[in-house]
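Reposting from the mailing list since nobody answered there.

I have sequence plus structure tokens for a pair of proteins and want to know whether others read the tokens the same way I do. The first protein:
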Amino acid sequence: MHEGKYALSTGYAAGVTPEELSEQVRGALSDLARSQGLTVDIPEVVHLERPRNRDHGDYATNIAMALAKSAGLSPRDLAEALCAVLSQWPGIESASVAGPGFINIRLDTAAQGELARTIVSAGEHYGHGTLLAGQVINVEFISANPTGPLHLGHTRWAAIGDAIARVLAAAGATVAKEFYINDRGVQMDRFGASVMAVAQGKPVPEDGYHGGYITDLAAAISAQHPEFALLDDAEQVSAYREAAYELQLAQQQQVLELFRTHFDVWYSERSLHESGAVPAGLQRLREQGHVFELDGALWLRTTDFGDDKDRVLIKADGEYTYFASDTAYYVDKRNRGFDRAIYLLGADHHGYVNRLRAVAACAGDDMDANVEVLIGQLVKITRAGEEVKLSKRAGNIVTLEDLVDEVGVDAARYSLIRYPADSPLTLDLEVITQHTSDNPVFYVQYAHARVCSVLRNAQDLHIDWRSADFEPAALSTEQESALLGALGQFPRIVAGAAELREPHRIARYLERTATAYHRFYDNCRVLPRGDEPVTEEHLARLWLCAATRQTIANGLQLLGVHAPERM
């Protein structure tokens, strides 16, 4: 078979995705209301479901039941009238009423099959949408001290926060990913004193930092800066503190890049104070009338907006509180042009939810629209049912680097993202490192690699499916229809993950889609055997394979997980 033998078919319109079908139902409702003089409050989105029994059709909706009262009709009468309009729309084979007013919709086989070409043509943009277009969002998902390695809690947010930012961007938002460096306060002096003590051969102070990484830092700094030993103790603490800060922050940045979590902004708490942003933020709060003085201290009346108590901004001795930094940091984000500030905080920060919402309100903002706080739960690592500590250099904690060394970036990211962030999580190392279908990340990646293998085999047989006549109506089996239905759901899944800040929905979707592909592959012969001629069915199935590969790759990309071509 020679390249270029097949001519491109142009006999069909773009494939009908669930989103496009939803718009068709809305259009049919508008036509019906106009022709019959009905008053109907048409929703922005008509929700569709895939019936469990495919004999009932490709999609179902209860829209007639929801709108019947406002239309002044019984649900069944409205459903029948709507079905009569829908049945005339291109791409819809039939629309019928079931029960008290459910509408079952069956797509024309060709229209449904054409979705494969729509997906392949869209490429890496398939699944992207405009739900959040025009929104400018700041996602701050790690706030850490530069005094040690990033621990397992940071690791969960490094994966989930990055995935949230990716799906927000896929939904049309302009997103900045931000890391807040807690580089101000007594912990920095303790850090410097710990490194200095080890460099001097002395015990680490009781309230200092312990672990092999402190020894590593002390050795590196002593080698680079032997002159530090000539300084007096006060100068040495400062010198070791700043040098250790630089090295430890660089280590955090390096391991996050290894983890495929790239931050657009590394925001220093020090810079917040040095730039004058803290007094500027307090002035904004004063102007809104929520700042008051009591017992020589300056307070913010956050109880006006749901906080459990008012908060001190400046103590009686004139020192700014950490909360003053929090308020100034929020105001600074808004001054930088962000419509919404999303904070991802750890399980011990529940008190910050109302506190940060109150800060937004005290600054004159809408605390529902301009600020959002997500709380993540703890992660536990087990092997053979027993909790394990992986740390090599950081004392009694599990670090991001430890987990990646143990299981790899793909398994770590996927496993951390696969579950809702607000649920406690236990990762079984034996499961997430298996190369079997029991391991979800392997199962999805294997589906992608399997599709790639089929497409390579087609190339080896010189089947130029891209240039061939594509007959979407040839995709007519139950397994093909189920796979097309799964692929068509992807844009809705991405939009929902973005709107709800739940990237685990994409992981679960990919697993369902992988299952649909494996069933299709096991039941539908894709490539000809021996001297069999290449039929329109083979070609259509290759388009479906390519559409599946693209969809799985796009989904894995949103999770920051590789889509391997061979396994």
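The second protein, same order (residues first, tokens after):
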Amino acid sequence: MKKRIFVVAHMMCIGGLLIGQNIPPDTTKTIKLNEVIITSNKLPILLKNNPGSVSLVTPEALSIIPKGIGVEEALRLVPGVRIDNQHDGERVHVSIRGQGILTERGLRGIGILLDGIPVNDPSGFAPDLYDVDWSTVQKIEVLRGPAAGMYGSGGAAGILNITTQDGGLKTLEGNISQTIGSNGFTKSLIQLDGRKESTDYRVSFSRTDGDGYRDHQGFWSNKLYEKVNFNPSEKFSFTQIISHTDYFQQNPEGLNRQQFDNLLQANPDACPFNEYQKTSRNTMGFHGIYKLTEKQEIEASSYLRSWEYKETSNRCAEYRTVTNPGFNAQYNLHLNTEKIKNTISLGADMKWQNMNVYKLQSASNPNRVESIADDNIETDSLMANQIISQQSSGLFALYKMDLNKFSLIGSVRYDDMQNELTNKMVAADSSTTSKNFSETSLRIGASYNFTEALTVFANWSQGFTPPSTEELANNPVGYSGFNTHLVPATSTCTELGIRGFWADKLYYEITGFSMNTENDFFRFKQVGRGNQEVFYGNAGNSTRTGVETYISYNILKNLSLQLAYTFADYKYTSATVDPVYTDTAYVLTTPPADGQYLPNSPKHQLYSEVTYTITKNFKVSMSAEYQSEWAIYTDAKAYSGELDPTIYQNWQDGFSMFHARLSYQWQIWSIKGELSVFARNLTDTKYMAFTEPDPDGNSYQPGPGRELFASIKIRF
């Protein structure tokens, strides 16, 4: 019934917008997708010929995001991607095709490139996306499916290649914007940019504040980003970036079923212990391409990232100081004949990370007056004092061939990753533990372009997901050292798809895939280690099959439709678990059984968006999203209903929501501007944004009700 209501309501939106179809269309220029070049494969290739599933988030799609602070806004129309915005700010959890679905926060196994600079640490984990100001992003390439053959452990699930805006055409230009909205939300942005001869530049600063829609959910951020592109000749191009980010966000934690009478409350521990995360990070990076000859070029990047991090909980206050340098280089050789274009590429990359960690025991303050201040109480009881050192190195070779309408890409990569933890609280002869991994990964893909309207592609690839730093450092057999029982998860994925263009009216891509993963992960808790301690184990294997569909259709000159649909069937299979995880005197959580669905993975996800240009100045967009029900737990007993039903209910209902945006564009002399209003969740639907397989039952993260936002943007 809910599905029927959703479809009917969306058709009514489209039908209502068809009225007045003879009004002159907007003159805004759009990019031509059939001319777009994708660079996520480490070698440039036309989007239409890409031998694998890929999505492009265009400037037009990015220009209408309401708040400009979350990746879930930017990737709303990308199939195969699951995004949980934890607590209304920018602390998100992202997965592609279910890879990394159990990570508590951040992105595990998804390679992130920001203006050509890698974001992932040596384990392939990206702790957050705080450095990205989505209001300044020009485009995003999303390579879906394992890409470890090109990016190693950072590409086990896919790639997000984020490119920010370049400088304008004049010597000095700029823009300012101000957004306000529900729950005390404000965002202010100022940007200066320009171009002179062979150099263009951009500098932006933004400030974001919000109260959140739940108790103890306030957040703020400052983001400074500087980018310079230098192109002195046809042979040489160079990009330099500097960024600084300060980010603070309170953590209201998940709710249990007994707290459903007030979905906006925080977990009882969150306020008296003032639970929050605070990050201050600096990044400097360089990316350049130098053409040695017409047939040869070298591409390289280097970076240094350092930050301080603090997280408080009802157990401890954890402090981290992190240094993360890296370097990569790639040599390309083009061997072309009249009919065949060949490219051979060899490359290497290195990453290091040094993390100083110490933990102080927390204390509750039941008389604390709620505010956004970082006034938590810490005792002098030192719970941990350790150093984590990591290093990863990768060697890869790529081959690309273009033969008329046929394209082929192949890659092979070897990765070696070393982890070492030194516990400064014990004797020197027992202070160090280590855990090392190595893997060889392959990828091969091909496409054939029958016509502009039909390209068929096939791709076979492997993924390699080592345990992240967080998972290794949470040791179930002691209060320090690594969890040495963990082993990497490896996967193979086969996909077959079609894509095509029809004039400037239609673009589509449909991909079917099947992925088998060995040594997949599950989450558990241990007897006597407290509510905050979450550990990870290998749960045997899983099989994931799915279909990803994207359609962009210009119904009329002034009316367009975009739609992204994902069918996902993800199950644990052949569960064979290390005996340490099945010792009932030791572990609270039962490992998953064969046939269980992976948690937080709806079978159906749909997002559709209709944009209608009423006049040259007025534009309206209406969107609808739907998610079907999903499983919550990895615990076999919770999944099968053997535990207390007042605490554990395995299936979470799905939801449907509707949103709308109205904008007015104007120009006075050379100054351009836009006024817009956005209404999210028009029907004020109560829903769960996402759930976590928390063994204590604090699994539920409710989403916001109806929200309104207004924005003004001025370009000068």
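Reply #1 (J.P.):
I read it the same way you do. The domain at 2-715 is CATH 2.40.170.20 (Maltoporin; Chain A).
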